[in-house]
Amino acid sequence: MNKKEIAEIRKQFKPENAVISQLCGCYINAEKEKELTFRQSFLTLSEEEVFKYCDIFRRTLSGTFGKNLWNLGFPLEQEREGGTQHFLLKLRDSSLADDELLSEFYDKIIESYIYPENYLILLIDATYDIPGRASDNLEMFDASDDVYHFLLCSICPVNLSKSGLCYNPVSNAIEERERDWVVEVPVKGFLFPAMTDRQMDIHSAVYFSKKPDELQEEMIEVVFGCPLPMSASDQRETFNTLLSDTLGDQCGYDVVKNIHEELNDMLDEHSMTEDPEPLVLEKQDIRRLMEDSGAPEDSLASFEETFDAVSGDQSSLLAVNIANPKKFSIQTPDVVVTVNPERADLVETRMIDGKQCLLITVDDHIEVNGVNVRTLPLQELER
Q1: What is the DSSP string of 149-173?
Q2: Residue 214, C-beta contacts closer than 8 angstroms, at least 6 positions apart
Q3: Average pLDDT for residues 53-58, to the nearest whole number?
Q4: Which of 98, 163, 204, 355 is in Cβ range 3.0-4.6 Å of 194 for a Cys bridge?
């Protein structure tokens, strides 16, 4: 799926849209025991409950692909009898009416999800008539091309609210507030099947993780049987290692600065195209990036071997995970310099009195711990 297709599904989670038929849930305590299981028609909920549940479901499909959302393709063996995809398909086709299948699904989550406190598993059965599109790309709601029948799972922490005081309008008094167990926003979840090219794709799922660097390998293996995708931080570390190992002693400040600027320019250009797919850098794209940024030709002689050794099974990296358009920093053991990414040109390296130094161009405004300090007049600097 891409961001446009995710956005299309997220829009369906509104009280006025009747796409959700069944809602199921399982409340798990800190000892990994089932405290409560329930199933009910979504249409019987109060308007306020529907609104709150829809907010949870929208949040389960939020974030950026490659950071919070991941497309997972099922290996062929998982689509056979007894495989993870085969099980999820049976669960979907049951419209969540099979208690045995539901219990087995909850057990899979409880077995593999690592969380030390209470949490709630929510699972919905939903159907969306995908509207056709005219030649001008406008939706034709009376010409549905396909019926998209899907499950959405949300895993939400349940925490005790903070103690405190509150006003009681009945007694007209300030009293101690009652502490409640509150369902919080989802931290994990998935959509199955995926929707690819605006058609149902039973060979794929979309996985959600609120924290990009906590993907939970065991849960992905148990629930989906898919290899773990490389997290955002792992991709960033892989890219940094690739630069260091490829360039070696020739990994200079100017080259790294140029790579940073080139990556940000690529992301800007990609955003202007309105392409819903994320910008993916293949092996040759990364080599070209290094060449264009001034990496010496002789240092790239072993690039391919280094890439294969560093990246392993990962044949590509997402630009959004290896670039940081909001930050440009230079670190030494004792000093950290943070620069506006658009003004990285203000910093350069220079040898002064036999020592390598950072030279920072400044105007007449400098702050030290929030205090404005005076700079030397130009006449004094020239003496």
Answers
A1: EEEEEEEEEEEEPPP-EEEETTTTE
A2: none
A3: 96
A4: 204
User: Angle between the 283-292 and 232-247 helix axes, to the nearest 10 degrees?
Assistant: 50
What span, in angstroms and rounded, lies between the C-alpha atoms of 23 and 154? 11
Q: Does the pLDDT of residue 331 top 90, yes or no?
A: no
Residues 187, 57 contacting (CB under 8 angstroms): no
Q: Could you tell me the two tokens for 303?
A: 């690039």
Contact 71, 194 (CB under 8 A): yes
Residues 6+ apart with CB under 8 A from 120: 25, 26, 27, 28, 155, 156, 158, 183
* 375 DSSP 8-state letter: P
| R_g over Cα of the chain | 27
Question: Distance (Å, rounded) from C-alpha 124 to C-alpha 153?
Answer: 7
- DSSP string computed for 46-78: -HHHHHHHHHHHHHHT-S-BTTTEEEEEPPGGG
Angle in degrees, 0-180, between the axes of helices 84-93 and 99-112, rounded to the nearest 10: 140
pLDDT digits (tens, 9 = 90+) for 167-184: 989 999 999 888 889 999
Residue 248's nearest CA partner among 186, 290, 195, 203 is 290
Could you read off the pLDDT of 251-283 as tens digits, one per residue? 888 888 888 889 988 988 888 888 888 889 998
300-306-310 Cα angle (round to 5):
140
Task: In whole angstroms, give the CA distance from residue 93 to residue 108.
Answer: 18
Q: What ranges in 181-251 are assigned the alpha helix state H?
A: 217-224, 232-247
